[in-house]
C-alpha cells in the first residue's frame, strides 16, 4: 500500500476486527448486509457487480481496491481478463462505489492496504472472470441449442466447436446477465495462461501521461467553494478565539468560522482562502502536545529501554547465554517519526444537500469514511455516495482507521455553511507535514553475543515505541497482553537460528497520533535486525552473506533471494577504494526480499551507487508491476534512511516543507536492478516489502566502505552530504 501496511499475518488477524467497526456503525445498510450475507453463501460474487460488457464488446472491470500508483487496476483487470477470455485491448477499469459487495475478503470492510490487494483478490477475481465466461458460454449454447461443453470462449467471442459459428460477448451479455451464477468454476491451469505472468502496459498509464486522469484535487463542480483550515501549531490544540477582520476583507472569501480543530476559511478558490488564512489571528489552547520535544522524548525512550518491558518472545535462557558468550555486543538503533508525504496533499470534495451527501475522495477506506460521513450528516448510510478517485499516493495516510481527518473537516465545513454548495477541502504541503499521523519514532536496544564458533549465542532486544493500533476499532483483535502485533512484526518471527532469545516491548503513550506507514512495523524492525546480524557477523570475522545463509536453514525462500541478490551484485568482488557493499534480507507481507547496496564514501560525501534487489512474492501477476514496486519502495525507503525525520520543538514540527523534509532527488538516485525469483507459492504483497530492507543494507554498506557503524536514522544526522 504502497499502503495501510499491516503484515500478511497481521492482516489475517485483522479479519475479525470488523466487530469493532460494526459497533461504530461503519457497515452500510441493512439491505447491504443482507446482500453481503447472500454473497457469502456463494463463493463467487455476482459478476454483474464486477464486469460490464457493452453491446459493442467493450469490457469495463470494477476495482474494489483504490488505485494509488501501485497498479492494482491493471492486476485486477488481468485476473478477470485471463479467465473471461476477453480482448485485453478493449478493457477499461473504474473504481467501485462504497457498497458491501466490494468489501475486502478478509477485512470485511472496503479498504485497500497492507499489500494485500492481490492476495485478497487473486482467487475472487479469477472466479468472477471464470463465472462470467461460463455464463456467456451458457447463453450462446442456449441460443444455438447445443451443450455448453460444445462451446469455447476466446478473444471476447464464444465459438461453437462443431461448426465454427461464433457470437460476440456484446451479443450475449444481456442473456448471460439473467442466468444464475454458477456454484463452482474451473480456473485455467497455469500452463494455459495468456496474460497472467506477462508484462502488461498499465491500464491507467496513458491517462496519467496526458493529464486525463482525475484525482480528487481535479474535481470541479458548479458553484464549488474551497476551504482551508488554520490549525494549532501543536497537534491537537483548539482555538480559544480569533480575529478574522483582515481575512474576511480578502476578495472572494465567503465565510470564516471555528470548527473542532481549527478555524476554517471558505472562499471562491484556493488562493483567496490561502491568503485569508495567513491573515487570521488565532489564540490557541495548545493542548497536550504544547511542550513536545524530540530531544526529551529520545532521552525518555532510552531510559525505558534500559529496563525490561513486556516479553513477547522467549526461547532458552537468554540472560545465562549472554553471560557465557565468548564475545558480547550491545547496540542501540533509533529511527524518527516519519511523514507519509504523498505527492497529492490530502483533499476531498463534499456536496451536502437535504437528503443526500456526495463525496469525491482519494481514500483507502471507503466503508469507514462513508460511515463517518453518514454519522456526521445524520443521513442514512444509503443516502451517502462516495466516489473514489485516483490517489496521488497513499502509503497508509489515506486509511485512517477512525475516519479520514480531512473528510471530517470537510463535513464540518459543509454542515456549517449549510447552503447546499459543494465544498473542496484542501491541505497544503505544510499542513501535511504538521498534520500528525506519522510513522512512530522507535528505539531498539539489542544485546547479544557469539560463541567460540562465531554463531549467535544470545539475542536480547527491548523495543520502545507507540502503538499504531491502540485506540482504533482493531485494538481488541490485534493487541494481546499489551503487545501490539504491528509493533513487533519482523522481530517476533526472525528467520535466523537463535538458541536463546528474549524480546520485550515498552509502549509509551504519547498524545500524537501515529499510523501505518509504508511497511509499518517492518520499517524499524528490519533496520535493527539486519544491522545487528551484520554486526554479529563482523564480530565473528565472517562474511555477512555467508553468515546469514548459515543461520537460515529453516528459511529456504529467504536463503534463495539472498543467494540471488549476492550473485547479481557480484558479492565478494574487489571494489574501488572507498566503496562498500552491504546486504540485508527481510520477509514482510508474504514476500521475501534481499538487497545489496553499493556506496562510495569520501570524507562526508556519500554516494549511493547501486541497489540490487531479489524478490520472491509467490505467483506473479505482472512482472513489470513487481519490479516497479520494488524500485519505488527502494526510493521511498532510501529517502527515509538518508533524510527523513519529523522532529518537535516546543510542540511544533520543525520541518515545514520539502526543503526540510527531503526526498531523494534524481541526481542522488542510484541505479536499481530487480530480479524476481520464480515461485509457485500464493501471491504475496509487493507495495511495501521493498521498503524496509534498503536502510540496513545502506548502513551495512557504509560500514563496509568506511568502517563506521551508523545506528541512528536518518544518516543526515551524521553529517553526510548525499551526492
UniProtKB/TrEMBL annotation:
<dbReference type="InterPro" id="IPR019546">
    <property type="entry name" value="TAT_signal_bac_arc"/>
</dbReference>
<protein>
    <submittedName>
        <fullName>Xanthine dehydrogenase family protein molybdopterin-binding subunit</fullName>
    </submittedName>
</protein>
<dbReference type="InterPro" id="IPR000674">
    <property type="entry name" value="Ald_Oxase/Xan_DH_a/b"/>
</dbReference>
<feature type="domain" description="Aldehyde oxidase/xanthine dehydrogenase a/b hammerhead">
    <location>
        <begin position="210"/>
        <end position="288"/>
    </location>
</feature>
<dbReference type="InterPro" id="IPR052516">
    <property type="entry name" value="N-heterocyclic_Hydroxylase"/>
</dbReference>
<dbReference type="InterPro" id="IPR008274">
    <property type="entry name" value="AldOxase/xan_DH_MoCoBD1"/>
</dbReference>
<dbReference type="Pfam" id="PF02738">
    <property type="entry name" value="MoCoBD_1"/>
</dbReference>
<dbReference type="InterPro" id="IPR046867">
    <property type="entry name" value="AldOxase/xan_DH_MoCoBD2"/>
</dbReference>
<dbReference type="InterPro" id="IPR012368">
    <property type="entry name" value="OxRdtase_Mopterin-bd_su_IorB"/>
</dbReference>
<dbReference type="Pfam" id="PF20256">
    <property type="entry name" value="MoCoBD_2"/>
</dbReference>
<dbReference type="Pfam" id="PF10518">
    <property type="entry name" value="TAT_signal"/>
</dbReference>
<dbReference type="InterPro" id="IPR006311">
    <property type="entry name" value="TAT_signal"/>
</dbReference>
<dbReference type="InterPro" id="IPR037165">
    <property type="entry name" value="AldOxase/xan_DH_Mopterin-bd_sf"/>
</dbReference>
Amino acid at each position: 500500500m504502497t499502503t495501510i501496511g499491516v503484515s500478511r499475518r497481521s492482516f489475517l488477524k485483522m479479519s475479525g476486527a470488523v466487530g469493532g467497526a460494526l459497533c461504530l456503525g461503519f457497515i452500510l445498510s441493512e439491505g447491504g448486509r443482507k446482500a453481503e450475507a447472500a454473497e457469502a453463501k456463494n463463493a463467487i460474487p455476482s459478476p454483474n457487480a464486477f464486469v460490464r460488457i457493452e453491446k459493442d464488446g467493450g469490457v469495463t472491470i470494477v476495482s474494489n481496491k483504490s488505485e494509488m500508483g501501485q497498479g492494482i487496476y491493471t492486476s485486477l483487470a488481468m485476473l478477470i481478463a485471463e479467465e473471461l477470455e476477453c480482448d485485453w485491448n478493449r478493457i477499461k477499469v473504474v473504481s467501485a462505489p462504497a457498497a458491501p459487495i466490494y468489501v475486502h475478503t478478509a477485512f470485511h470492510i472496503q479498504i485497500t492496504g497492507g499489500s494485500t490487494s492481490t492476495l485478497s483478490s487473486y482467487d475472487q477475481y479469477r472466479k468472477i472472470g471464470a463465472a462470467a465466461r461460463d455464463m456467456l458460454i451458457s447463453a450462446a449454447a442456449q441460443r444455438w441449442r447445443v451443450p455448453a461443453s460444445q462451446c469455447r470462449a476466446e478473444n471476447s467471442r464464444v465459438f461453437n466447436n462443431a461448426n465454427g459459428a461464433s457470437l460476440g460477448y456484446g451479443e450475449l451479455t444481456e442473456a448471460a446477465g439473467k442466468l444464475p451464477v454458477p456454484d463452482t468454476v474451473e480456473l485455467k491451469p497455469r500452463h494455459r495462461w495468456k496474460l497472467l505472468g506477462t508484462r502488461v502496459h498499465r491500464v491507467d498509464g496513458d491517462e496519467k501521461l496526458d493529464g486525463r486522469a482525475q484525482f480528487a484535487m481535479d474535481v470541479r463542480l458548479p458553484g464549488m467553494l474551497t476551504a482551508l483550515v488554520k490549525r494549532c501549531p501543536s497537534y491537537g490544540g483548539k482555538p480559544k478565539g480569533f480575529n478574522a477582520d483582515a481575512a474576511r476583507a480578502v476578495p472572494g472569501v465567503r465565510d470564516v468560522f471555528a470548527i473542532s480543530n481549527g478555524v476554517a476559511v471558505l472562499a471562491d478558490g484556493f488562493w483567496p482562502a490561502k491568503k485569508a488564512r495567513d491573515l487570521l489571528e488565532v489564540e490557541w489552547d495548545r493542548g497536550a502536545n504544547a511542550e513536545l520535544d524530540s530531544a526529551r522524548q529520545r532521552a525518555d525512550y532510552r531510559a525505558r529501554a534500559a529496563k525490561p518491558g513486556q516479553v513477547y518472545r522467549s526461547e532458552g535462557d537468554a540472560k545465562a547465554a549472554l553471560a557465557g558468550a565468548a564475545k558480547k555486543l550491545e547496540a542501540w538503533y533509533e529511527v524518527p517519526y516519519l511523514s507519509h508525504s504523498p505527492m497529492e496533499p490530502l483533499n476531498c470534495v463534499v456536496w451536502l444537500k437535504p437528503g443526500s451527501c456526495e463525496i469525491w475522495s482519494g481514500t483507502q477506506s471507503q466503508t469507514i469514511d462513508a460511515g463517518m460521513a453518514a454519522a456526521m450528516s445524520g443521513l442514512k448510510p444509503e443516502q451517502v455516495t462516495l466516489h473514489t478517485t485516483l490517489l496521488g499516493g497513499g502509503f497508509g495516510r489515506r486509511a485512517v482507521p477512525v475516519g479520514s481527518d480531512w473528510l471530517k473537516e470537510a463535513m464540518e465545513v459543509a454542515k456549517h455553511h449549510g447552503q447546499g454548495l459543494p465544498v473542496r477541502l484542501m491541505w497544503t504541503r505544510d499542513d501535511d507535514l504538521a498534520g500528525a499521523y506519522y510513522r512512530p519514532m522507535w528505539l531498539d536496544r539489542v544485546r547479544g553475543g557469539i560463541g567460540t564458533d562465531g554463531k549467535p549465542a544470545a539475542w536480547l532486544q527491548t523495543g520502545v515505541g507507540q502503538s499504531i493500533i491502540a485506540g482504533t476499532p482493531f485494538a481488541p483483535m490485534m493487541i494481546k497482553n499489551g503487545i501490539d502485533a504491528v509493533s513487533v512484526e519482523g522481530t517476533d518471527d526472525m528467520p535466523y537460528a537463535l538458541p536463546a532469545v528474549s524480546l520485550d516491548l515498552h509502549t509509551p503513550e504519547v498524545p500524537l497520533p501515529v499510523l501505518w506507514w509504508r511497511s509499518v512495523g517492518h520499517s524499524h524492525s528490519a533496520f535493527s535486525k539486519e544491522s545487528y546480524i551484520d554486526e554479529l557477523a563482523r564480530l565473528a570475522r565472517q562474511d555477512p552473506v555467508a553468515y546469514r545463509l548459515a543461520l537460515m536453514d529453516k528459511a529456504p525462500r529467504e536463503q534463495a533471494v539472498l543467494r540471488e541478490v549476492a550473485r547479481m551484485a557480484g558479492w565478494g568482488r574487489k571494489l574501488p577504494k572507498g566503496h562498500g557493499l552491504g546486504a540485508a534480507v527481510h520477509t514482510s507481507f508474504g514476500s521475501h526480499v534481499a538487497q545489496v547496496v553499493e556506496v562510495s564514501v569520501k570524507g562526508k560525501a556519500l554516494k549511493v551507487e547501486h541497489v540490487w534487489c531479489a524478490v520472491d512474492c509467490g505467483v506473479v501477476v505482472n512482472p513489470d508491476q513487481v519490479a516497479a514496486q520494488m524500485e519505488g519502495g527502494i526510493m521511498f525507503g532510501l529517502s527515509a534512511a538518508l533524510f527523513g525525520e519529523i522532529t518537535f520543538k516546543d510542540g511544533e514540527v520543525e520541518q515545514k516543507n520539502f526543503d526540510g523534509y527531503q526526498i531523494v532527488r534524481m541526481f542522488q538516485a542510484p541505479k536499481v536492478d530487480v530480479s524476481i525469483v520464480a515461485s509457485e507459492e500464493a501471491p504475496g504483497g509487493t507495495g511495501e516489502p521493498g521498503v524496509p530492507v534498503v536502510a540496513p543494507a545502506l548502513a551495512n554498506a557504509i560500514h563496509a566502505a568506511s568502517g563506521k557503524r551508523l545506528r541512528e536514522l536518518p544518516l543526515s544526522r551524521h553529517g553526510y552530504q548525499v551526492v
